[in-house]
Amino acid sequence: MVCQTKVLIPLLTLLHGTTNAVLTVNKIDDLPFDQDNRLTEHIFAYPSGACAALIDADNSIADGGYGHTFASLDGEAYQRVFGHLPKFPDSPPTEESVTTFHDCLAVCLERGTNYSVISRPLPHRYWQFGQKDDEGTIKSVDTISDFFSSDSCGKVEYGFVNYHTNPVKLYWIHHDTNIPQYNQELRHGEKSTTFITTFVGHKFQAYDSKPNEDALLNEMMFELIVENAGVIGINNHVPPQLTREGVDREVRETMNNEWDRHNVVKRTFTSLGFSKGRLPDDVYASMGAYYYNNRNYPHKVHEEWHRGKGVFVNYWEADSK
Fold first, then answer.
1. Structure pTM?
2. What are phi and psi of 218, to 5 degrees?
3. What is the pLDDT of residues 222-275, one digit of tens each?
4. Which of 52, 148, 156, 161 could form a disulfide linkage to 193, CB 3.0–4.6 angstroms apart?
5. Which residues 6+ apart lie within 8 Å of 185 measured at CB?
6. Residue 175 maps to which CATH number?
7. Is residue 149 within 8 Å of residue 66, measured between CB atoms?
8. pLDDT in tens, 42-88
């Protein structure tokens, strides 16, 4: 693959209005990738033809919703994304075989996914193929809009860790009125990290809890528009300056202690007690996208390592983030 250093312009300028027309993508390479071969947008993809006509005519969802760009797939792109599914048609379904959304396929491709595994999203990201309950039975999703707004596409988990001196007040900004609505207080430190369920495109603001009782009158610590599943640090932890004095002894004691614990285990399944293998493509795709989307500050912050936590991480010579 040749690295694509600019975003595909037609995908970013899809037609809006009465037709809600969407560009048909025939090759995976025509999706927007950056210089690292990572998808630059969330893509809501489905077969061209009859299924595309049904989705385009549905007023409950629209291109750009939950930060997703719509794309109908044909040819090689259709085969790559849907070809590994059981009982899939060799080509996009025809009008004769499609009467409702439940006769169609759809999938949400996650921003930040590597090109090499772009056609292997996790099963729950597929309409009809991934909505399963705890017993593995496919759940009934009444409408495509229910799927579009679920954790298959638009719904994400987001974490907040506060390293500011004071507690911080978190507000959700109403998307219609732009009025801040109080969400919760974020207390200091890693142990107080909190995760919430939200949606791509939702906006949050965080304010210092001091000096005013009304936090909205205080300094705004950050403003966030959710782009994907992730985590954000409010300021950054400052690691203590530690000396090497006594570290060698602690490392030896820790190693001996871990070996003593290892010797307690009476049953192993390999000679070493572990095995090494290749991650499934869909798991690798999801993990890789999460890392890529959160790889820089303020999403990446220092961990709270110090002498009281042990010497399991070499924090006295290298920062742990």
1. 0.85
2. -95, 180
3. 999 999 999 999 999 888 777 778 888 889 999 999 999 988 877 777 777 777
4. 161
5. 167, 168, 169, 170, 209
6. 2.60.40.780
7. yes
8. 999 999 999 999 888 888 999 999 999 999 999 999 999 998 887 77
Confidence of residue 19 (pLDDT cuts 50, 70, 90): very low
Range of the domain at 118: 9-148
Q: Are residues 84 and 205 in the same domain?
A: no
Closest residue by Cα to residue 230 from 260, 266, 258, 193: 193
**Quick one: tokens of 319?**
């920062």
Q: What percent of the chain has pLDDT above 90?
A: 60
Q: Please tell me which residue, 96 or 279, carries the higher pLDDT value.
A: 279
Last residue of a domain, one of 198, 215, 234: 234
Number of domains in the chain: 2
Structure token pair of residue 21: 């027309």
DSSP-assigned beta bridge partners for residue 155? 199
Counts of helices then strands in the chain (DSSP H, E): 6, 11
Closest CA to 229 of 168, 296, 172, 286: 286
Neighbours of 218 (CB within 10 A): 17
**Same domain, yes or no: 211 and 193:** yes
Cα 31 to chain centroid distance, Å, stands at 18
Spatial separation of the C-alpha atoms in residues 213 and 32, rounded to whole Å: 46
Identify the sign of the CA torsion 144, 146, 18, 76: negative
| Mean pLDDT for the chain overall | 87
> 281: exposed, middle or buried (C-beta count within 10 Å: 0-12, 13-18, 19+)?
middle
- Distance in angstroms (rounded) separating the CA atoms of residues 200 and 177: 18
Enter the DSSP assignment of 211: S
Same domain for 213 and 142: no
